[in-house]
Each structure stands twice: as C-alpha cells, then as structure tokens.
C-alpha cells in the first residue's frame, strides 16, 4: 500500500482551517491531506471525530529536584504516559542548573533520565539558576548550539531567583544566541516580606500561600521583566499568567509593540484561591491542609480574574496554554503533607498535576462553551508551542511533512475527571469530579496509536528526546 496509515472521514482542524479530509501517513510523517485516501495498510475510522494536531505541552516539570525531603511524583515514563492518555504527543520539561553547578551537567543528567523512558517526544528546556561567567560565556552558547534553545529564569524562589542585573545579563546572551526565554514573574522580596508577616500572625495554613503572593506581586514582576526585555530588545515569554493584573501588563506591552508573549494554564481559568481553604465540596467538611492540593505559583485567583484571562485569550494576548504540570503526591511525607509543610504554607511544595487534564479541561471550557474556536484551540495547545520553541514546521500542524502526531477528539463525549482514571504519579487531581464535554479518544504519535480510550498502548522509549535549532534571524548581536 501507498500509505502506512489512513485516518478517514474526520474533520481536520489546524490553527487556520477546519476541513473534511483524510490524512495519509508514511514513515511516521504526514504525506497527504486529501479528500480521499484509499490505499493504506491500516485505516482508522475518524467519522464524527475531529483530527487535531497532537497536543504539545511546553511547560511541564518531570523528575525535577525539589528541595530536601521532597520528591516529584512523576518520572519520565509516568509523566509521558499520562501525557499520551491526555491527547499529547510532545512535552517540554526542564533541566535545572543547581546553584554552584554546571548547566551542561544538569542538561546531561535530565537527558539521561528521559532517554529510553518516554511515551511521547520530549524537548528539554533549561532553567538557569546561577548565571556565572562560565555559564553565560561558554556553557549557554554551546548548549544552544547543541539544540537546547530555550530556558526559564525565575524572579522568585530561594534556590532559583535571579536579581535584575542577572536577568539583564542572561537576556543579553539570549539575544545574541537567539534563545527563547521564559520568565517566572513573581517578586521575591515582596513574597518574603508578606510570608514573614503571615507567619508571625499565625496564618500558616495552606491558604496563606495565596495571601503571600497577591496579584500585585505578579504584576510588578511582569512589568519589571517587560522593562528588561524592552531594554535588551529581546522577545520573552511570561509564563503561567494567573490573573487580570499581569494580563493587563502584557496587553499594555503588546500594544506598545514590545515582543512580549504569554502563557496561561487551565488552573487559572477554572480554579480559585478559595480551593486553598480546604473546604469540603458541600458536606460541610473542612480540612485546612487539604488546601495544599491546590498550592501552585502563581496562585489561582478569583472568578473575575478567570474572566480577564479568558478575555486575554480571546483577544490574542496569550500564545500558549500549558499545564505547568508539577506533580507532588498529597498524602505523602515527601509531598504536599511533608512535616515542615504542616508548620507553614512556605514549605508546601508548589505545583499541581495537570499534564493529562490540560486538553480536556481547556477544550470543554474553551471550545464547548463557545469562548474560543477550534482553530484557536489548535493554536493555543499545539501550533504556537511548536512555533515559539523551535519545533515548527516539524510539529504543531497537519500538513505534508509534519510528524504524524495527531489527536482524534470526540467533541460531544461527556466525561467526569477522576483520579482513578488518570495515569500520572500523583495521588489526586485538582479537577476531581470536574465535568467536561469533548474528549481525546485516540492519540497518534509518529503514525502509531499510542493511546486509545484511556489505555496507553506504547512502550516507554518510543518517544525521542528532540534537538532544536534557533532561527538564525533571532540571533542578533547585542
Ligand atoms: O507552582 C508551580 N508552578 N511550580 C512549578 C514551578 C514553576 O514555577 O513553574
Ligand atoms: Zn514558574
Ligand atoms: Zn512551571
Ligand atoms: Zn494522569
């Protein structure tokens, strides 16, 4: 047969078009999108289904070192298995440079953790915590040339925070190398000041986390990052934007013509800070520590902020919706309920699991409610991730030449999200009991069915660790 696989009778959705078409696959790539594709070794009937680009999640944390006594709940096998079940074909985790350590060493270590373990393709971002002369002068340029073309910097967290001069120096090198920079924008000193005051007042329960990081803290840092990016003339991505105030800063910057890109996550569209109070669903139960399940940074806000972020999505202020999957177990002394975390919110590991639920939650709340179009969904969950981080035109769309990474969606299927059905290493989901309309029923990666109806069919090691290349036009002397 001419094709290894034909996906027949579906509606093909890309960032720009929605068309009735068959998709032909050969050698792991898409080779034809046509009205009819006949001659194939295997046929998948997609009638009644949408054929979307496989989800790309450009912000996930996997097997990341998380401080003394704390262990992340996913390794590369479990995280990518969950990703596949949730309709994803590529994820982008981080290799963290330890302070005083080598960036190259970190990249090699995380790459070794990933090799042979992954169900979906991965591309590794770096986190720069210690921009020494050796890192900025040698390691970083060499790593960018070797295919690690993006990295994240932090404006908060004891072990990761960079000061303004360090941010400027790192931005300068990124501009020269054409690297893509992601910024975690929350102000370190303001958070410390507020946390100290809350602890002295005895406000140590998980909800204190929300009080210690109000929107103004994120707004200030976002503005500061934008100013630094303007000074260096560097496009940056402000990640996990949580609410109205940071969204306003980004809209302001974009209106001035600055190259500021933005990411948000389903938690900021569907959860609120109230969840951190630990109130039971409706039975009057109350356990303040249960709020730890929802502790992430920036924290979730309120319904008005959710509406502001949705509005930003509709207006095109956001380029990508990622999960910021950062899984810890709840009922675990190495997780959310670690001994120090019981004494103060300050010691509750930050992050929530979401790699498997990102697409169904965002599809349901975005597409099924009519807030965004199918084409916007494809752009925000796949195409723009590939474009921002150097995977386009290899991944992120449905056309000849692209990897055969596809997700078949049943737009009408109703499901209720349950931890019991998920594949990640965490012992809970923040979306327990959440009802969705629209479900990823088949995940195809490299032309192979890797997940079907919640069952993962691939072997770990099928997914590859991808190298990327910078766009030479982005490499500008500074
Ligand atoms: O709380 C979060 N988001 N933890 C993950 C690390 C980060 O800042 O993205
Ligand atoms: Zn972050
Ligand atoms: Zn993150
Ligand atoms: Zn899962």
Automatic annotation (TrEMBL):
Q: Which SUPFAM superfamilies does the record match to this protein?
A: Composite domain of metallo-dependent hydrolases (SSF51338), Metallo-dependent hydrolases (SSF51556)
Q: What organism, scientifically named, is this protein from?
A: Methylobacterium longum
* Keywords for this protein: Hydrolase, Metal-binding
Query: Which PANTHER family does the UniProt record give?
Result: COLLAPSIN RESPONSE MEDIATOR PROTEIN (PTHR11647:SF1), HYDRANTOINASE/DIHYDROPYRIMIDINASE FAMILY MEMBER (PTHR11647)
The GO molecular function terms of this record are: dihydropyrimidinase activity
Q: What EC number(s) are associated with this protein in UniProt? A: 3.5.2.2
Q: Mind telling me what this protein is named?
A: Dihydropyrimidinase
Xref: CDD domains = D-HYD
* Pfam families associated with the record: Amidohydro_1
* Gene behind the chain: hydA
The residues forming a coiled coil are none
Amidohydrolase-related domain location is 50-449
Which cofactor is essential here?
Zn(2+)
């Amino acid at each position: 047969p001419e094709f290894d696989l034909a996906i027949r009778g579906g509606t093909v959705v890309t960032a720009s078009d929605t068309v009735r078409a068959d998709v032909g696959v050969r050698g792991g790539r898409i080779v034809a999108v046509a009205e009819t594709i006949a001659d194939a070794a295997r046929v998948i009937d997609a009638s009644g289904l949408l054929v979307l680009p496989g989800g790309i999640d450009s912000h996930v944390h996997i097997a990341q070192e998380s401080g003394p006594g704390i262990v992340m709940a996913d390794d590369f096998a479990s995280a990518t298995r969950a990703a596949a079940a949730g309709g994803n074909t590529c994820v982008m985790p981080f290799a963290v440079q330890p302070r005083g350590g080598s960036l190259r060493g970190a990249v090699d270590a995380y790459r070794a953790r990933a090799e042979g373990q992954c169900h979906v393709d991965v591309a590794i971002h770096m986190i720069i915590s210690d921009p020494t002369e050796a890192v900025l002068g040698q390691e970083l340029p060499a790593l960018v040339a070797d295919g690690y073309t993006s990295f994240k910097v932090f404006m908060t967290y004891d072990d990761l925070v960079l000061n303004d001069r360090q941010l400027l120096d790192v931005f300068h090198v990124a501009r020269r190398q054409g690297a893509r920079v992601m910024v975690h924008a929350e102000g370190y000193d303001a958070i410390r000041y507020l946390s100290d005051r809350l602890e002295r007042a005895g406000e140590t329960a998980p909800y204190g986390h929300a009080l210690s990081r109000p929107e103004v803290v994120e707004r200030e840092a976002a503005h500061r990052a934008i100013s630094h990016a303007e000074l260096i003339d560097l496009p940056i991505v402000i990640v996990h934007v949580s609410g109205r105030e940071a969204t306003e800063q980004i809209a302001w910057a974009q209106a001035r013509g600055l190259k500021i890109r933005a990411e948000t996550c389903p938690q900021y569209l569907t959860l609120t800070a109230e969840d951190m109070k630990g109130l039971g669903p409706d039975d009057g139960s109350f356990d303040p520590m249960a709020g730890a399940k929802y502790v992430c940074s920036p924290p979730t806000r309120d319904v008005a902020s959710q509406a502001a972020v949705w509005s930003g999505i509709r207006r095109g202020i956001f380029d990508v919706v990622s999960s910021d999957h950062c899984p810890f177990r709840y009922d675990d002394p190495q997780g959310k309920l670690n001994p120090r975390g019981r004494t103060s919110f300050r010691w509750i590991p930050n992050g929530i699991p979401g790699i498997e639920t990102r697409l169904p939650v965002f599809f349901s709340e975005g597409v099924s409610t009519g807030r965004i179009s199918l084409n916007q969904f494809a752009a925000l969950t796949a195409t723009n991730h590939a474009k921002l981080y150097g995977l386009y035109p290899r991944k992120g769309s449905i056309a000849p030449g692209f990897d055969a990474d596809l997700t078949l969606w049943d737009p009408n299927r109703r499901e209720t999200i349950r931890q019991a059905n998920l594949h990640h290493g965490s012992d809970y989901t923040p979306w327990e009991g959440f009802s969705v309309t629209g479900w990823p029923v088949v995940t195809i990666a490299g032309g192979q069915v890797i997940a079907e109806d919640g069952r993962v069919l691939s072997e770990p090691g099928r997914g590859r660790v991808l190298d990327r290349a910078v766009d030479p036009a982005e490499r500008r002397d500074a």
